[in-house]
Amino acid sequence: MSVANEDLIRAATEARKNAYARYSGFTVGAAIVDDQGRLHVGCNVENAAYPLGSCAEAAAIGAMVQEGGRRIVKIAVVGGLGDIASCTPCGGCRQRISEFADDDTAILAIDDSGEWQEYSMAALLPASFHLP
Ligand code: THU
Question: Which residues form ligand 1's pocket by a CB distance below 6 Å?
Answer without folding.
Answer: 21, 24, 26, 28, 44, 46, 53, 55-57, 87, 89-90, 93
